[in-house]
Amino acid sequence: AELELSKNGWLLDIEKLTLGENIGEGEFGAVYEGVYMGQRVAVKTIKCDVTAQAFLQETMVMTKLQHKNLVRLLGVILHKGLHIVTELMTKGNLVNFLRTRGRSVVNSVQLLRFSLDVCEGMEYLESKKLVHRDLAARNVLISDDNVAKVSDFGLTKVDSKVSDKAKLPVKWTAPEALKKEKFSTKSDVWSYGILLWEIFSYGRQPYPKMSLQEVKDKVEQGYRMEAPEDCPPSVYSLMRVCWEQEPRKRPGFHKLREKLDREMEKLSPG
Ligand code: ADP
């Protein structure tokens, strides 16, 4: 993996990196703001060597993916484990963005814009036959110019939250993925429905007040969340099709994007 990355210019030079403030905590290490050759970047550090090797494999996948709604990989640095360098998303993750600003600042056109952004990123992953497995508002980041981008794609196979059944993000995971580990684009679509709910509820925790076991049982029996306050009925019906028990009955991301385009046209013509 190392040789492959270096041949293609993805191996960056630690000497050219200036690390700044700590901006987040990941599962395997801290995330820092930094500057690489004049560009502001985010640097995810992975200290453990074994984990670093696994991540290095996965970053190979990321080198092949480029889309305006995916957080862009700039390269990796092999130094005391692994540093993964990506574009800096100055406005942080979508949950905090919506919680801190709220209804008085963010209008429904902006909510729909974020929904479309994420959908377009996922449509691209779908076209590449890549399954995310951990799609949630906490894994969507906001750029300086308010564009939402999906992060952590391609890395989820090494992510123990996803690869270890006991740690699955239950409230975001489709029933067939929880029960039989059947992950697919259609299980990502289920998660996307939860993400839509998070967006239109301004960053609330899904299934408020319910325990994980309760969510597993009730959802299996057909229980679904209600529409968030003031959520347009057309958007809520999109959530509901994403939450079809039967994966086949859920739309793909291409279809979802077309529906969202039409919603956007209604809400903000032209
Ligand atoms: P993990 O997936 O291991 O939990 P994340 O990649 O989600 O770690 O990073 C944790 C936090 O760090 C994010 O919620 C976000 O606030 C911040 N962060 C991660 N990547 C970036 C980035 N490219 N730009 C800005 N902030 C980031």
The hetero compounds bound to this protein are: adenosine-5'-diphosphate
What class do helices, strands and sheet pairing give? Answer: alpha+beta
How many strands, which pairing sense, and closed or not: the largest β-sheet?
5 strands, antiparallel
Helix-strand sequence: HEEEHEEHHEEHHHHHH
Mean pLDDT figure: 93
Widest sheet, order of strands: 1-2-3-5-4
The Cα radius of gyration reads 19 Å
Distance between the termini: 46 Å
Quick one: overall form? globular
Percent of residues in helical segments? 40-55%
E-strand count: 7
- Our count of helices gives 10
Segments where pLDDT lies below 50 for 5+ residues? none
Report strand %. 15-25%
List the helices and strands and how they pair.
Elements: H1 2-7, E1 17-25, E2 30-36, E3 39-46, H2 49-63, E4 73-78, E5 82-87, H3 94-101, H4 108-127, E6 140-142, E7 148-150, H5 160-163, H6 175-180, H7 185-200, H8 212-220, H9 233-242, H10 253-267
Antiparallel strand pairs: 1-2, 2-3, 3-5, 4-5, 6-7
Helix pairs in contact: 4-7, 4-10, 7-9
The structure holds adenosine-5'-diphosphate.
Can you walk through the features of this model?
The structure is a single chain. Helix 4 runs antiparallel to helix 7 and helix 4 (108-127) packs antiparallel against helix 10. The protein is of the alpha+beta class. The chain contains 10 helices and 7 strands. The strands form 2 sheets. The protein has a 5-stranded antiparallel β-sheet with strand order 1-2-3-5-4, covered by helices on one side. Strands 6-7 form a two-stranded antiparallel sheet. The N and C termini lie far apart (46 Å). The relative contact order is 0.12. The protein binds adenosine-5'-diphosphate (ADP). Adenosine-5'-diphosphate (ADP) binds at residues 23-27, 31, 42, 44, 71, 86, 88-89, 92-93, 138-139, 141, 151-152.
